[in-house]
Amino acid sequence: YLSCKEGEKYLVYFPKNGSVLLDLTKHKGKFNLQWLNTTNGEMTPSVVIEGSELLHLEPPEEEGFFAIILK
């Protein structure tokens, strides 16, 4: 599942394990990525990623994660 304001913020929900390619090729600059665990509410530390490319997203564990990507 995906909700976004293209080029600014993205929220990708992974109810189960899997992966997604997010197309950021039209959006230059840096984004911050964090994972939210829906089971315990914990968030991973923020990681800086580059726009202008395809981003491969795969949750850190099997179930119940949101990928939060902000410019």
Average pLDDT number: 95
Give the N-to-C terminal Cα separation. 20 Å
From the alpha-carbon coordinates, what is the Rg to the nearest angstrom?
12 Å
**Low-pLDDT stretches:** none
What is the strand arrangement across the widest sheet? 1-2-7-4-5
Q: Helicity, in percent?
A: under 10%
Q: How much β-strand is present in the residues? A: over 45%
Assign the structural class, choosing from mainly alpha, mainly beta, alpha/beta, alpha+beta, or little secondary structure.
mainly beta
Question: What string, H for helix and E for strand, traces the elements in order?
Answer: EEEEEEE
- Describe the main β-sheet briefly: 5 strands, antiparallel
What is the count of DSSP helices, taking H or I runs of 4+ residues? 0
Spatial shape? globular
Task: Please outline the helices and strands.
Blueprint: E1 2-5, E2 9-14, E3 20-23, E4 30-37, E5 47-50, E6 54-57, E7 65-70
Describe the protein's architecture and organization:
With 71 residues, the protein is an all-beta fold. It is 0% helix and 51% strand. The protein has no helices and seven strands. It has strands at 2-5, 9-14, 20-23, 30-37, 47-50, 54-57, 65-70. The strands form two sheets. The chain has a five-stranded antiparallel sheet with strand order 1-2-7-4-5, with no helix packed on it. The protein has a two-stranded antiparallel sheet with strand order 3-6. The radius of gyration is 12 Å and the shape is globular. It starts with a strand and ends with a strand.
Identify the notable features of this structure and list them briefly.
single chain; 71 residues; mainly beta; five-stranded antiparallel beta sheet; two-stranded antiparallel ribbon; 7 strands; 0% helix; 51% strand
